[in-house]
Sequence to fold (393 residues):
Amino acid sequence: MNIETLRQQTPGCNHKIHFNNAGASLPPQQALDAITQHLQLEAITGGYEAADLKVDEINSFYESTAQLLNCKASNIAFTSSATNSFARALSCIPFQPGDSILLANEDYISNQIAFLSLQKRFGIKIIRANSLPEGGVDVADMKRLMDQHHPKLVSLTHVPSNTGLIQPVEHVGELCAERDIYYLVDGCQSAGQIPVDVQKIKCDFFTATLRKFLRGPRGAGFLFVSDKVIDRKIEPLFIDLRGAEWTKADEYSPRMDARRFEDWELPYPLVLGGKAAIDLALSLDLAEIQKRNLALCNQVRAGLAGLPNTTLLDKGANQSSIITVKINNRKGPDVLNALREQNINTSVGYRNFALIDFDAKQVDWALRISPHYYNTEAEVAVLLQSLQKIVAA
Fold:
């Protein structure tokens, strides 16, 4: 991995020290070129006609994404975001009043709100498994709750946005597969950061975005759908002419692949930009990306541990490239803006973003630092020096 070359291919590195990759990474030039070139083609050719001309490249998005997840292209749908993917997957589960959903305390805020909405509107029961004292969901408690309540759906966020742990999605997947329980994994923060193998996870759905660790464009994501879901003709609540064929006046037939979950209208510049970003990640090897990120995170965590008035909040046996830290006697926006004044991008998570987790940690806010492979050790040193001045002020 040639970091200097990768930084030369990332225009934003000339302007910012970017440690907000869990929010949106700096995109590589390859993705920018793919997007702008197709926009220019649409401008002179027409949108539909440009899509026809580039149909092979567009279809290769599904091949690249399938390679990323170790599945078939027929298991992939393009969506506008991880949350959009999640909603489409959730809408197809055949819930009945009294059914239950089993999840973890650390699951992402938008997912938690979606489950609460189902509970309020349709009488779906939410069950949360215990967290381990050392961090992460208690798999044994999940097993107990599966056997006690027989949930219609198990949902787990692979890498929660506001804490630096990696959840044991494969262990939970084994339990779901043994019981034929639908399994929905939110991979918004894991795709592009660590290797993902949906065959090992044994999930029915895997949702992701392109703007975070995959370094693709905003407004783009994807959804993995298992063969089991496709073969059972389970479909999203609102399905259009992309996902189904109108066969008779009062009948339609869903298409027999994951594009059943797509809309007809797709932003093809973003599809191609997303493919370019995924291809870059594949060329670098996700295992090497994870290794590089771990080295950077170890440097950040070691430096933070030596700062006064700061407390590292992350738990879990396996930690991700998301680092959360409590800074005493400071307000989140003040720290965020003080770093931005020095051209350092980070982000802040607040209590309502991760209510259960932050209450357990007794914090109202946390600074989130998320390095990625194109960051440098020198940038980490600048970040730590800046934080040292902030906490000492």
Observations:
- The radius of gyration is 21 Å.
